[in-house]
Structure prediction request, 1157 residues.
Amino acid sequence: MAPVPLDNEFVERLKVKFGNAIREATLDRKQAIVNVEAMRLREISRYCRDEEKFDMLVDLTAVDWPNREKRFDVIVILYSFQKNERVRLKTHLGDGELVPSLCEVWPAANWLERECFDMFGIVFEGHPNLKRILLPEEWEGHPLRKDYDILKQDTAWVRENLGIESGQ
Amino acid sequence: MTDTRTSGLSNVETTVLGADEIILNMGPQHPSTHGVLRVKLKLDGERVVDSECIIGYLHRGVEKIAEHRSYQQFAPYVDRMDYVAAVSNGLGYCEAVEKLLGAEAPPRARVVRTILTELQRIASHLLWLGTHALDIGALTPVFYCFREREEILKIFEKYCGARLTTHAFRIGGLQYETYDGFESDVKRFCEDFTHRIDEYETLLTENRIWVGRTKGVGILSAADAIALGVTGPVLRASGVKWDLRKAMPYAAYADYQFDIPTRPTGDTYDRYIVRMEEMRQSQRICLQAIENIPAGAIMAKVGKVLKPPPGEVYHSIEAPKGELGYYIVSDGTTQAYRVRVRPPSFINLQAFDRMARGSLVADVVAIIGTIDIVLGEVDR
Amino acid sequence: MGHLIPPSILPYVLPVVYGVVIVAVLPLMAGYIVLLERKVMADMQARLGPMRVGPHGLLQPIADAVKLLLKEDIIPEKADKLMFWVAPLVSVTMALLAYSAMPFGPAFQIADLNVGLLFILAVSSLGIYGIVLGGWASNSHYSLLGALRSAAQLVSYETAAGLGLVSALLLAGSLSLKDIVQAQYDQGEWFVFSVPIGFFIYLVGSIAETNRAPFDLPEAESELVAGYMTEYSGFRWSLYFLAEYANMIIVAGIATTLFLGGWLRPFPRFADHLPGTSVEIMDAIPGLVFLGVAAYCFWLAPKQPVKIQRIVMATVGGLCLALAGAMAAALFAPEGVRQGVYGGFWFLVKVMAYLYAFLWIRFTFPRYRFDQLMRLGWRFLIPLALVNLIAVATARVASEEWGWYPRITMILATIFTLAVALWLASRDQKHEPATETAGGD
Amino acid sequence: MAMNYILFAFFSVMAIGCSILMVTRRNIVHSAVFLIGALLATAGIFLQLQAEFLFVVQIILYVGGIMVLFVFVIMLVNLDVSMRLVQFNRQKWAAGVLALVLGAQVLFALWIGRGELRLPAPAVDVSPKNTEAIGQALFQHYMLPFEIASVLLLVAMIGAVVMAKRRV
Prediction:
């Protein structure tokens, strides 16, 4: 059940339109994944929404692969009401690199991108008000990164607020 | 109070009272914010000019915990997210991991899962109806709704020992065989439920004050709903006929007849009608499913230690609040590399500002109720 | 007895005695109405209501009263001490003052003013000051907002209720409450049947006037917390509470006197004597009612789990039995006493029925929003009341001068007003959704 | 008869006291409350003269209606600004002279009538009753002035509505 290269007319049209921005297209457990280049994510998404009728942004999240040189995968899951299909756009992103925000394409992306920034520290360029959504403003560190050590954060907080050494 | 209008100021901020707006802070402790949600409202007199939701008070870092637990160990955490509809959370997670494994639950397990999930949907909608009516001032429906919900929770307790956070399902099927008398309990509840729901309808649907307080309040158009990624009853009330149980059938939904209620205008009254109709449809599914629960095994052969081959999967189900999705990445070990939950309440709450703008303060209470959010799921 | 008291203050003795009785009984009655409300609410919501204090919660009001007396009485630091102290007093005194003209029975009335009805309206309109000053004195933004809202609501619904009453006055021809009931006796018909729309307008107006649901906006709105009563606690808060329930009883009393025939029994002129005695069947009903209640209490007594509750329930049964005996004894008493006792019974039964309607409405309807509330008041109720007034006046003229049959003219007037009401309602219906979010001011 | 005198003395003292207090209070709401006290005192005097209809109407109209709107407006306008302004203007001398002249006039009137300084004997039975009397007077003898007054009031109301309607 390893991922199998995918080649259907949708991928063909994408390749024709965007050339090498479309890195590879695979099928994992019968679900289409298209790997795209980070900088052109917004155009590709706009194209998918307008021409390909993927009119709903289901989800936008990220996965952290610390031992890769481009450590973050930004995952964009789209759904088309007409074709009743889902597609997953994936981009590789280095730490500190910018990725164009999808707020103009789907307003739904607003809070999702804020949560990605909050949890991974990925900066979405062009986002109306990119600030933490779940954690308090003055929280340092991004919890969902693999190298984020919860114990260090906890002991620091306990020492600072309660003035005692946390026993963990 | 100088009247800014006559002083020729052309700024957009000309307000009725001429005074600057008041910032009203609602929450996090507030009788009608359904948990720890804080809403900062910018008011001009009674009208809401702008609103901002501040969330995160109930953030427990469920997705971080998932990376340090095995697949089976993480299943109980899933119930704690949308604690009002724990059974459907469990179904979503178990089916996602089964898809990751490439396994398939046996037919009997799928039918029992469908029945329990539909009962949970009725229970979740009952809790929504009770609290929503209470916020708008109708004191009586909440007690009727909780009386029915109690029946459902009794069935859950008899089946898996817990009422609220049930952890009723296992990856690959079911842990427990259905107790004898399960079919008769569910059948009795469904038959009794038909005239109960008519009782609520007579109390509220044609009630002039209820209609006055909900019609035309918090309108969300179909285009806005799709653009904001809103799903579930809120989307269907805006006129979009889309339900995951029909679009991408999972568990045993493919072989039952039920229809998807939709309403044209997408205001609070339409969402109320859609949810009431959905309860009737769920009851219809339960009756059809209870007729013939196939015999046979209740657990697929997935073995004690689960080591799904590396790769990723996204699987979503129609939870009472909307599309509840799980994006799981596996690196071949017994623990998931990344579990991302697509929370319907979190994304639906984003539409609050669009609905609340221009409405009155008293409507804000009704709008929060109509989106039907559970803060455990919003904050994860 | 006359010679014992110096002649100059003889006319003041009886009213003072009646006054003392009312002021003593009222808090108890208000307390038990609260218990009744909680029990009816529970009954409507498929649950039991207070069961813990005394059998079936019968001692709950006493427990509440003691709790309120013992609770700490907080005065906000920056509040206007004088106003904060005066406001609840104004509310309660005005509520109690209104009882002076209320005819509880043919004999039991403190003072039969010939402007009785107007006096009660005047005094209850003074009750607004208790609320407004209370809200202002608490010096908190929320209570001030609550006070302003309830003042606006009271002022606008008082006009509607007043006009509703006037339509009944047209039939009665006098402002003294005793004459009004007498007029209903002479015409042999309760006014609720001749001017039903007046009764309906007064019912809605009185609910709004006592800040009861579905018009309980000032105190129950989620962001106003408890409206003008937010800063009050302990005994001061219970004064407001007592004033609200006293107002409820007054409003019920006025409605009973004007529309439901005061102390008249259902068929006042229908003299059907028991065979061979001068006792009328209808007069036996009060005795039978109490007999039934006593039987029910005795039937319940042994079922009570706790021994003490059994005793209390038995004593309550005994009390009802005694009352039944008194009712029966009154059958053979002289005319005056008999009229007084039965009049009082029927008056209280009708007041209780009217209050039950209050409670019933409270638990079925959700709350109005403030702009809907004002729109209903000014654009539907007051115009309807005016039209009803004109219709009833023309009907009176028609039956007096032109000799038409009075009952027919009344029915015609009612039908005409109903037509106007439907037209008003449809106009509002068409208009309401449009202004909802169109940002209308 | 003694009761009559006591009541009359009580009401008149209350009226004078309240009006003096009203003028001298610094806190506007307190002075509004004392104004209400003065109006109630005059109502009491009406009652003493067996004009109970006037007594009731005085309470309903003045105290229950107009004064409520007074207090309403006082609360809507925020008071702290006006409280700090100096309340009394400069012309102390002019006010003093005027007061003296008025006082002399009142004393002179009292002096003239010093012979019959006693209350009118309470009429045993007033027929027709006060309310009917007023009703007849208003609608028969003084029909025209009544109509003119109502038209005047109507005009005033319409004027108020037009002014209050800010956004047409």
